[in-house]
Amino acid sequence: MKRIAVLTSGGDAPGMNACIRAVVRTGLYHGLEVIGVRRGYEGLMDGDFMNMDSHSVSNIIQRGGTILKTSRSERFKTKEGLLEATKKANEAGIEGFVMIGGDGTFKGAEAFCEASGIPCMGAPGTIDNDLFGTDYTIGYDTALNTVIDAVDKIRDTAASHNRLFFIEVMGRDAGYIALNGGVGAGAEEILIPETATDIQELIKHLEEGWKRHKSSVIIIVAEGEKEGGAIEVARKVKEKFDHYDTRVTIIGHMQRGGSPSCFDRVLASRLGVAATEGLIEGRKNESVGLIHNHIAYTPFSQARKHKVDVNEDLIRIGRMLSS
Ligand code: F6P
User: Fold this and answer.
1) Alpha carbon of 147 to those of 105, 141, 256: distances in Å?
2) One-character DSSP codes across 254-285
3) Atom 14 (ligand 1): residue with closest C-alpha?
4) Which entry of 128, 130, 141, 264 is annotated as an active-site residue?
5) Other CB atoms within 10 A of residue 248 CB
6) What are the pLDDT digits (tens) for 271-320?
7) Mean pLDDT of the chain
């Protein structure tokens, strides 16, 4: 193997740059040429390539976003798109890929690996933490820190005005950001898609708190919550319980930005090295991950399945400590 390529795809996540840096420097360390693909799979189909030397990844470990840019590509899901990407990769003499992204990225990587015969390895980069084969995805820890920082600030104003706040966090159809961010911020209630939400029960809790003279309340709502997002849940609650002055905040895309935490920088570095060295050792069609602090390899077909095992004990802890 002489030449490999690296790309980022799907939603960006803090730490992707640290992972790009790890892939580039590991490849160079082992005597390979490294190509950067701009704009994810869109750039692969367009042959939008750049040579990566050690200097090209200087000073990026601390930067959010992705210097290679990213995209969500519909074209890459087609047979023609895969053929075009294969042609461009072969013309550039690329013999292996490291793809950094979430489940959509791994789905694309699996299809491309099969269509082109070029070995691909994945590094899990998404704030959602919703992939099998790793305890943590790159960007999740930073997003959690952004969430608790935002909720702490909202709590200041909620307490000053005696208000009830519904705060919506990202995670697509997974509740990891909501559950861990909610416990970390000491939220009174946490609504996630993995467990059924009973609006009547929620109102009962609010009434109990009101009777105990609870002056302000924070309810974290995962964007994938089955009863609806924060606006919808707030509406349903307000219909029957109107004691508090109520506000809704959607934290939104700020959860995707910012300088990665130390945890994410180290995770991204370890996973970038493992993905690249795995490729060199002849691995393909797998995602790297960290399980119980050890590097693990999981076939793409498994890794991209949504985790469903929410931490029941954390739900219990959150309820107990906020009552
Ligand atoms: O997968 C990361 C994520 O931020 C999800 O939490 C969210 O649902 C989605 O991407 C938003 O995507 P977009 O940036 O395309 O609106």
Assistant:
1) 25, 10, 10
2) GGG-SPPPHHHHHHHHHHHHHHHHHHHTT--S
3) 11
4) 128
5) 18
6) 999 999 999 999 999 999 999 999 999 999 999 877 767 888 999 999 89
7) 96
**What mean pLDDT is predicted for residues 146-171?**
98
Model's pTM, two decimal places? 0.97
* DSSP designation for 10: S
Domains of the chain, residue spans: 3-139+260-303, 141-256
Q: Are 88 and 80 in contact (CB under 8 A)?
A: no
Ligand 1 nearest atom to the CA of residue 223, by list position: 8
| Ligand 1 site residues, Cβ closer than 6 angstroms | 11, 102, 126-128, 170-172, 223, 256
Partners of 52 in beta bridges: 34
Closest approach atom of ligand 1 to CA 171: 6
Active site residue 128: yes
What average pLDDT does range 107-135 have in this prediction? 97
- Packing angle between helix 140-161 and helix 176-184, nearest 10 degrees? 50
Residue nearest to atom 12 of ligand 1 (CA): 11
Domain 141-256 has CATH 3.30.2090.10: no
Confidence of residue 322 (pLDDT cuts 50, 70, 90): confident
The reply to whether 3-139+260-303 and 141-256 are identical in fold is: yes
Q: Among 40-44, 147-151, 199-203, 307-311, which is the least confidently predicted range?
A: 307-311
User: Which CATH class for the 3-139+260-303 domain?
Assistant: alpha beta
Q: What is the pLDDT of residue 55?
A: 98
Q: Which of 177, 221, 256, 307 to mutate to test the pocket of ligand 1 (most atoms within 8 A of CB)?
A: 256
Where residue 270 falls (left for φ over 0; alpha for ψ -120 to 50; beta otherwise) is alpha
pLDDT of 266 > 90? The answer is: yes
User: DSSP strand E in 163-293: where?
Assistant: 163-169, 189-191, 217-222, 245-250, 286-291
Residue linked to tokens 């840019």: 69
Report the distance separating Cα 76 and Cα 87, nearest Å. Answer: 13
